[in-house]
Amino acid sequence: MINRIKIIIGSLVVASLMFFFFFPIVNLFVDAFRSDLANNQYLPQNWSVKWFSYVLDRPGVVGSFVMSFLVAIVTTVVSMCICIPAAYSFARFNFVGKKLCYFSFLLSNAFPRIGLYASIGVMFYKLNLMGTFAGVIIIHVINSLMMMIWISSTSFKSVSMDQEEAAKDVGAGPIRTFFYVTLPLAWPGIMVASLFTFLGSMEEGAGTLLVGLPNIKTLPVEMYSVIFDYPGTAGAALALMLLVPIIVILVIAIKLLGAKSILDSMKIN
């Protein structure tokens, strides 16, 4: 009897979480295809794609869509170049202030983002980085540091030192050992971290809005303008346009990496 009650309670909790997770997505889908704004019913009587036409006819939407992918790709590559060596250092070496440095990457998430962006914006203004592609990339890379370093560091820790020592015993140097033994074994976790970096960059709007305007407009930035200029249904259509490629990328990643590899990589040591 007690076990049955536990199962029922657990099922209700899971169902509640699933409802709060999926209901906004379902509501987004319904609003994006709603044709009649005056209809107060939840499900529209007539379905339409006219809001997608309104959004696509707006100047700059297609360009901002391309810019979002470009910024996300560059951010991911730059973040990998910076964070992979840093993650390896945290996983393999002991140095003074290691724990302090390791947890300092939480700082970007510990403070209100808008305050952090405002402070960075003042510094960027002095460095002439406001409204530049480089300034936007720096903002996005800063946002990715915690996830990229923590997950990659965990992946490097999971690689046995015995495997590295075996490679060195047969004559491989440190660099060769890293690229032919350590990095391939840690690669699934690094790819998971890169995936989250890419998706986080695709969805970043506030920092890009503050630092990138008026020259750099990504799709989340364009969404602010659409919401102000058009009914909320047009914003829902644009949000759905951003959501679909993200879901496709996630599905491809799960197929290539496997759900188990993704979940294992999220175990922070």
Commentary on this structure:
The chain has 269 residues and is mainly α. The chain has a single domain, classed as MetI-like fold (Orthogonal Bundle). Helix content is 78%, strand content 0%. It contains 13 helices and no strands. It has helices at 2-32, 50-57, 61-92, 98-104, 107-110, 113-126, 133-157, 161-169, 174-203, 206-212, 219-229, 232-257, 259-265. Helix 11 (219-229) runs antiparallel to helix 12. It starts with a helix and ends with a helix.
pLDDT < 50 runs, ≥5 residues: none
- What is the CATH superfamily classification? MetI-like
Strand tally: 0
Broad CATH class = Mainly Alpha
Stated plainly, the CATH topology is called MetI-like fold
The radius of gyration computed from the alpha-carbon positions, rounded to a whole number of angstroms, is: 23 Å
Total domain count: 1
Helical fraction: over 70%
User: Multimeric state of these chains?
Assistant: single chain
Give the SSE string: HHHHHHHHHHHHH
Category from helices, strands and their pairing: mainly alpha
Mean pLDDT across all amino acids: 84
CA(first)-CA(last) distance: 38 Å
Percent strand: under 5%
* Largest sheet descriptor: none
Please, how many helices?
13
User: What overall geometry do the principal axes of the alpha carbons give?
Assistant: globular
